[in-house]
Amino acid sequence: QVQLEESGGGLVQAGGSLRLSCAASGRTFSINAVAWFRQAPGKEREFVVCINWSGTSTYYTDSVKGRFTIIRDAAENRVYLQMNSLKPEDTAVYYCAASRDSRLMNYASWYDYWGQGTQVTVSS
């Protein structure tokens, strides 16, 4: 019913930048919030940031505040994650998730739809 597809991952050196994209298709009218999660090798899936579809509210995890920015483009059914000042500890598979509820939550089970993930690797 809703499909999410991430793109934009890659290899970057510490201090560099990447811009991830999450494209939504299908029954996109169902989406009222979008989030990014990440999962590093041997680690649990970690919340990064979320935004409601109206664009009025955002919620960032402390480790990325001031470095990452989430941007929504409702007309294109797309959300971006601009990542600056990247650190090796940012290395992970990054996942896009969407919820039918507009409330901003930081746990994975809240979200109804998930993308396949895109790899981000930050070298030291």
Summarize the structure.
The protein is mainly beta.
Features:
about 120 residues, mainly beta, 7-stranded mixed sheet, 4-stranded antiparallel sheet, about 0% helix
Rounded average pLDDT? 97
Give the % helix. Answer: under 10%
Shape: globular
Number of helical segments with 4 or more residues: 0
The portion of residues forming beta strands comes to over 45%
Q: How far apart are the first and last residues' alpha carbons, in Å?
A: 40 Å
Kindly report the oligomeric state of this protein: single chain
Number of strands: 11
Note the main sheet: 7 strands, mixed
Supply Rg. Answer: 13 Å
Order of helices and strands: EEEEEEEEEEE
Low-confidence stretches: none
State the secondary-structure class.
mainly beta
Write the layout of secondary structure elements.
Elements: E1 2-7, E2 10-13, E3 18-26, E4 33-39, E5 46-52, E6 58-60, E7 68-73, E8 78-83, E9 92-99, E10 113-114, E11 118-123
Parallel strand pairs: 2-11
Antiparallel strand pairs: 1-3, 3-8, 4-5, 4-9, 5-6, 7-8, 9-10, 9-11
What does this structure look like?
The protein is mainly beta and 124 residues long. Helices cover 0% and strands 52% of the residues. The chain has no helices and eleven strands. Strands 2, 4, 5, 6, 9, 10 and 11 form a seven-stranded mixed sheet that branches. A four-stranded antiparallel sheet has the order 1-3-8-7, with no helix packed on it. The protein is globular and about 40 Å long.
